[in-house]
Design brief:
This protein is of the alpha/beta class. It folds into 2 domains: about 120 residues, 3-Layer(aba) Sandwich (Rossmann fold); about 60 residues, no CATH class. Helix content is about 55%, strand content about 15%. The termini are close together.
């Protein structure tokens, strides 16, 4: 039986780096964000639906993320409408991924809003990626186009890091070196392999 590990963490915690470490160790990873990019990219199957709901937010390259962000930013109703388009499509892709990897001992679902969107109910174990608040803030504010106000708004929509850590089966710290983080990832894989074997 496959163990499904939900991997999550607030913005700027290093989740993508940790997901890549699991992949490097041979564990299949489903990246929900990458899936959204594909669905909204050039020729993506959600582009027409998003254009219909939010006119002038798409073009030849698919969804214009800046324009779409402005169309839904600070507008709960619009944001909910967008989620209604995106979430079911991502769920379908996730089911395809799980079916394709049902013979594997361990798979990772990399889901940013695992707790907030209720995805934690569909996994066997949860790993939370976490770094000190000042490290997180510095990482996020270094991103192109990011402002302190936007960062605060994103944080407000996410469950606090402390609460995520409390609900996790594993906490993967990313405030130190990459080697230290990789060591924890390997330990998590070993623990889950033992659980599967036992």
């Amino acid at each position: 039986m496959t163990i499904v590990l939900g991997l999550t963490g607030s913005i700027g915690m290093g989740k993508s780096t940790v997901a890549a470490m699991f992949a490097d160790e041979g564990v299949p990873v489903f990246d929900a964000d990458a899936e959204v990019h594909k669905l909204q990219g050039p020729g993506g199957r959600l582009v027409a639906a998003i254009e219909a709901a939010f006119p002038d937010t798409t073009g030849a390259d698919g969804v214009d993320r800046t324009a779409l962000g402005e169309a839904v930013f600070g507008k709960p109703e619009a944001f909910k409408r967008l989620e209604g388009i995106v979430h079911p499509a991502v769920a379908e892709e996730r089911q395809r991924f799980l079916a394709a990897n049902r013979d594997r001992a361990l798979v990772v679902l990399d889901v940013p809003l695992l707790f907030e969107a209720g995805g934690w109910r569909g996994v066997d174990k949860i790993a939370v990626v976490s770094a000190p608040a000042q490290v997180q803030r510095a990482r996020v504010l270094a991103r192109p186009g990011m402002t302190a106000a936007r960062f605060e708004s994103i944080l407000a929509r996410q469950m606090p890091d402390a609460e995520k850590r409390e609900r996790a089966d594993f906490v993967i710290p990313t405030g130190g070196s990459l080697d230290e983080t990789r060591e924890v990832v390997r330990t998590v894989i070993a623990c889950l392999a033992r659980a599967e074997g036992g």
